[in-house]
Write a structure and sequence with these properties.
The chain contains eleven helices and 15 strands. With about 400 residues, the chain is of the alpha/beta class. The strands form three sheets. It has a seven-stranded mixed beta sheet with strand order 8-7-9-10-11-14-15, sandwiched between helices. Strands 1-3-2-4-5-6 form a six-stranded mixed beta sheet, sandwiched between helices. A two-stranded antiparallel sheet has the order 12-13.
């Protein structure tokens, strides 16, 4: 297949979507003012349509991630369906970030007639669901579950996000190559697969390249609220950079507590920190100078990004983060693969699965998306694309 035609397709569908979004709505049965919940579909008429089953936290502490991936996917489906060819619907189920609820959501999606699984949003639920989809032969594409455990030993599961090891290696090299810090402290969540996976590869790479790590501090859960011990250890060790492969909720507390103690190192995070500027009640000035790796910059000046941000704001009333962009790219990747493989709505889930596996791993299949140009996939489900490092300046991301 030739290089993906997503850009032209997105622009072709943008007018139709903007007319819908301009009326203040998102997709049918879902809008910025609709309470988050499951069992939502983006099209009222699914006859002759391929139903995609989405799983992610639409409520609970991780809902900001699940809602973003859901909403980004909805925008893409609106655009795709407006083209008049292959049609999709999205049935989103809430797993609340819980493993058991994610597996139950998957069972419901099968009962509802889903042919492709989109998700899960977070790693541990995704690992559990991936074991089920592998046995049942459902094609699964996750926007944001980044652990290698998600795809390990499963030929049917693919990722649009960076893997955890990839982020750790890239972060260590970037810090070293750009002389961002001479003494590095690490603060990570040792109870979380995402955070631990990135830390392990970061630490190994730092040792290889001579990046001095002066202290490693942990915390057990994202509900942790006191980080003074960890910050004091970093400060006492003379760390001028603190690497934090964690989500933005604990990161926001760390930034606040660091300011209170007068500690001002460079803070460097990964894609899980994206969204910190939109955290309710968070003082954006605390993030000034924060650096993080993300595949998407909502303040980018290219036309495609500006169009997506405009559509997202019209539909949901906020700035999209990278999770929304990952969700958007997932739908277009599925669409491009289905189109190239000749997938039709009357095919079984297993038939679609085998067709999409072959297409995603084909040497001539690539996708241009919001989060990467020329994205390709290996047989182990890992995506290949270049990360972007941004710095918070004046309350917005500035690409470095």
């Amino acid at each position: 297949m030739k290089k993906s035609r997503i850009l032209s397709l997105a622009l072709a569908g943008a007018l139709s979507f903007s007319m819908l979004a301009g009326c203040g709505g998102g997709t049918e049965g879902s809008s910025a003012n609709t309470p988050a919940g499951g069992n939502e579909t983006t099209s009222g008429n699914t006859e002759g349509t391929i139903q995609i089953g989405g799983i992610g936290p639409l409520t609970g502490s991780a809902a900001v991630y699940g809602l973003a991936t859901k909403q980004g996917a909805e925008i893409a489906i609106e655009e795709i369906n407006a083209l008049g060819g292959l049609q999709f619907s999205l049935n989103s189920q809430d797993d609340e970030g819980d493993i058991e609820k994610a597996v139950n959501a998957y069972g419901k999606l099968k009962d509802d007639g889903a042919k492709i699984i989109y998700g899960c949003t977070t790693t541990n639920p995704c690992v559990a669901v991936a074991a089920e989809t592998y046995n049942d032969r459902y094609f699964q594409l996750t926007p944001s579950a980044s652990s290698t455990d998600v795809t390990a030993g499963k030929d049917n599961v693919f990722q649009v996000c960076f893997t955890d090891p990839n982020q750790g290696v890239t972060a260590a090299n970037y810090i070293k190559d750009n002389n961002l810090g001479t003494k590095v402290a690490v603060i990570y969540n040792n109870g979380d697969a995402y955070s631990t996976g990135i830390y392990n590869s970061f630490q190994a790479t730092a040792k290889e390249i001579g990046l001095e790590v002066v202290t490693v501090q942990t915390f057990p859960d994202d509900t942790n609220t006191d980080f003074n011990v960890q910050l004091s250890a970093a400060k006492d060790a003379g760390a001028d950079l603190v690497f934090m492969p964690i989500y933005y909720t604990p990161a926001s507390l760390i930034l606040s507590q660091a300011k209170s103690m007068g500690y001002e190192p460079t803070f460097f995070g990964c894609d899980g920190m994206d969204g910190i500027l939109d955290l309710e009640g968070f003082d954006k000035s605390l993030a000034e100078g924060l650096m993080l790796m993300t595949p998407f910059n909502a303040w980018g000046e290219d036309e495609r990004t500006k169009t997506f941000v405009s559509e997202y704001e019209a539909a949901y009333g906020g700035i999209p983060n990278q999770f929304a962009a990952d969700g958007y790219d997932c739908m277009y990747a599925i669409y491009e693969a289905c189109t190239a493989a000749g997938v039709t709505a009357d095919m079984s889930a297993e038939e679609i699965c085998e067709a999409l596996i072959a297409q995603f791993t084909s040497s001539d299949f690539s996708v241009d998306g919001l989060t990467g140009t020329g994205m390709t996939w290996s047989a182990n489900g890992e995506v290949s694309k270049a990360p972007v490092v941004v710095k918070v300046e004046g309350g917005v991301y500035v690409t470095q």
